[in-house]
Design a protein that fits this description.
about 300 residues, alpha/beta, five-stranded mixed β-sheet, seven-stranded mixed β-sheet
Length: about 300
């Protein structure tokens, strides 16, 4: 059974923290939720609970980075990209400091805490900041690589993590690369470009469509910025129909990034958007929220069929 993304993250943070003593970890009083507490328990001299002070936390991370440390700042993504945004902009985007902003409980995964804790605009916010790299974790193996890559890459970075487990789509020996999407399944009738929890939904949707004789390419665009423009344009040329699927507003996130690429590249392909339709969600069970707001397999299947009909 797949492990919860947050648990994998906590274990990976400790694993790489044991190897690299320059790694320091900060948390805004939610370490038992983000699982940065796993690192804090074994490495208390490199762990800082700053309290409910997200803006201060990002500033502290920036200061630590100037001394050669590699700071991982942790809290729920909705607060990191709102209250922590002024520091992200000034110290990460403008000053290009080596801060790693780890957005926990992305999308609707903080289900029962409701709209105050749902994060549905973070990708749009962070990809608009110059010099930031932006990633979304799709499964446990990719999560581990994202932590390792963050340690090895100098510069500001935002990584969105989910609370729950997601379907496993990779293996321990999968090779990832910044700025390169991953083709998980081939097809010629349409392409689903997804990220995060929606990658698993996209694979399941492609399997359902295959039963109807529809062959769909599935791409995991885990690297939102930089984005794989070449793969997007080649997919549009090959299939003529693009569906973007994200646990995020359809405004400004993965779908927007793909649409910008298609337009700039002169691609001739129909595009449909699966995501939150410019609204807030409510409290409820995670799976029920995904279904109600059109982020389930059925919604992806319908979007693919609509895109194909528009070709």
């Amino acid at each position: 059974m797949a492990k919860a993304i947050r648990d994998v993250y906590g274990d990976s943070l400790l694993k790489y923290g044991r190897e690299n003593k320059n790694i320091v970890v900060l948390d805004a009083d939610v370490s038992s939720s983000t699982k940065s507490c796993v690192f804090g328990k074994e490495c208390p001299d490199r762990f800082f609970n700053v309290g409910i002070a997200e803006a201060n936390m990002v500033g502290m991370a920036a200061g630590l980075s100037t001394t050669g440390k590699i700071p991982f700042a942790n809290t729920f993504s909705v607060f990191l990209t709102s209250i922590g945004l002024i520091g992200a902009r000034a110290f990460g985007s403008y000053s290009k400091l080596n801060i790693k902003l780890m957005g926990a409980y992305g999308g609707l995964s903080d289900a029962y805490d409701g709209p105050s804790h749902h994060s549905l605009e973070d990708i749009a916010i962070m990809r608009a900041l110059p010099n930031f790299q932006v990633f979304v974790a799709a499964d446990e193996y990719q999560t581990d690589w994202l932590v390792k890559n963050a340690v090895e890459t100098d510069g500001p970075m935002y990584i969105r993590l989910s609370r729950d487990a997601t379907p496993t789509v990779y293996s321990a020996d999968t090779k990832f690369e910044t700025g390169k999407g991953m083709i998980i399944r081939e097809g010629t009738d349409a392409t689903i470009i997804a990220c995060g929890v929606m990658v698993g939904q996209a694979v399941a949707a492609a399997e359902e469509l295959a039963k109807k004789g529809v062959q769909v390419r599935v791409v995991d665009m885990f690297s939102i910025k930089p984005i794989d423009k070449e793969l997007i344009l080649k997919s549009a040329e090959r299939t003529g129909a693009i569906v973007t699927a994200e646990e995020h507003s359809v405004i400004g996130g993965l779908g927007g990034a793909v649409a910008e690429t298609l337009t700039a590249g002169g691609a001739k392909a129909a595009q449909e958007f699966v995501g939150m339709q410019d609204c807030h969600a409510e409290c409820g069970a995670y799976s029920q929220l995904l279904e109600k707001y059109g982020l389930d397999v059925k919604a992806v299947v319908a979007a693919v069929e609509k895109a194909i009909a528009r070709k």
